[in-house]
UniProtKB/TrEMBL annotation:
Protein name: asparaginase
Catalytic function, reaction form: L-asparagine + H2O = L-aspartate + NH4(+)
Similarity comment: Belongs to the asparaginase 1 family.
InterPro entries: AsnASE_II, Asp/glu_Ase-like_sf, Asparaginase/glutaminase-like, Asparaginase/glutaminase_AS1, Asparaginase/glutaminase_AS2, Asparaginase_C, L-asparaginase_C, L-asparaginase_N
Keyword rRNA-binding: no
GO biological process terms, semicolon-separated: asparagine metabolic process
EC number(s) from the headed UniProt entry: 3.5.1.1
Taxonomic superkingdom: Bacteria
CDD domains membership: L-asparaginase_II
Classification of source organism: Bacteria, Bacillati, Chloroflexota, Ardenticatenia, Ardenticatenales
Length: 314
């Protein structure tokens, strides 16, 4: 039986690939240039590098995201590949990580990493993070953990990780959970594992929108989306997912028109279920026929809804 010893690094851009142009940091380094900064690996380890794109992560389109999903899934099917590392901007890293977590069929490691400081800054964290990410992908215990984000020596599960800070190398955290493991002095330590939810998805339906409930907010945005006949609406509700009572009519109307409505929580550690009997709380929403995102934040819930709408294979 052939040993799986190859890691495929797929670079997409982000600050990890940026340098100062004199007028601000911009994408500069290709996947090959990033990989050239990595240390030598032990015997038998092979690194293959692909440049998928070189853009800030907020510039990625859903088409590119789905294309990346296909590339990652295809590379993991190859016998000799032990895992894939995706370098990515940090702004939307949790979304790409979660989409790959949800839809890539393979149980092999999928690791995302990036940098908070660009390559012209002292303290550039890209080399450390990419080195750690490759170490995690090579680790014999990295299978069956879904997609992971490796930043600042921490290994985060895609489902729970979120960017908490706009600045600082410690920008990522998994609120309510903590990291799934750490890379300490080159050694990978695992704290817990999880059973990931994987859906065999055909495609993403893009026409899904996210709105956030705020105190006293009218139902204007909901009504506008219903008038547009969108495919789905995700609401980040109060607490684990409650809405103002005057939104309920619009939510019921959306459901009657066949628009899927999903409820996510506005707080970082959210459970949808509550014991309240008042309008706009869990029971009322359940009766209205909404879906509950069960702990996912709004952006991740939106991806899941797009995947569900895209239809399952088989
Ligand atoms: N730190 C980062 O990578 C932020 C960056 N501008 C991005 O592409 O998301």
């Amino acid at each position: 039986m052939a040993r799986r010893n190859k890691i495929v690094i797929i670079s997409t851009g982000g600050t990890i690939a940026m340098q100062d142009s004199g007028e601000g940091a911009v994408p500069a380094l290709s996947g090959e240039e990033l990989a050239a900064r990595l240390p030598q690996w032990g015997e038998g380890v092979e690194i293959e590098v692909e440049t998928f794109s070189n853009i800030p992560s907020g510039h990625l389109t859903l088409e590119q995201l789905w294309q990346l999903q296909k590339v990652v899934a295809e590379r993991l099917e190859r016998l000799y590949v032990r895992g894939v590392v995706v370098t990515h901007g940090t702004d939307t890293m949790e979304e790409t990580a979660y989409l790959l977590d949800l839809t890539v069929p393979s149980n092999k490691a999928v690791v995302l990493t990036g940098a908070m400081l660009h390559a012209s800054e002292p303290g550039y964290d890209g080399v450390r993070n990419l080195t750690d990410a490759v170490r995690v992908a090579l680790d014999p215990q990295s299978d069956n953990r879904g997609a992971m984000v490796v930043m600042n020596g921490e290994i985060h599960a895609a489902r729970y990780v979120t960017k908490m800070k706009s600045h600082g190398v410690d920008a990522f955290a998994s609120p309510g959970r903590g990291p799934m493991g750490r890379v300490i002095e080159g050694h990978v330590h695992w704290y817990w594992s999880l059973e990931r939810e994987a859906l065999p998805v055909r495609r993403l339906v893009p026409n899904v929108h996210l709105i956030k409930a705020t105190l006293g907010m009218p139902d204007t945005l909901l009504r506008a989306l219903i008038a547009q006949n969108v495919a789905g609406i995700v609401i980040e509700g109060f607490g684990g997912g409650r809405v103002p009572p005057w939104w309920m009519d619009a939510i019921r109307e959306a459901r009657q028109k066949g628009i899927l409505v999903a409820i996510a929580g506005r707080v970082p550690v959210a459970h949808s279920m509550d014991g309240y009997g008042y309008p706009g709380a869990y029971r009322d929403l359940e009766e209205a026929g909404v879906l509950f995102a069960e702990g996912l934040n709004g952006p991740k819930a939106r991806l899941k809804l797009m995947a569900i709408l895209g239809g399952l294979v088989g």
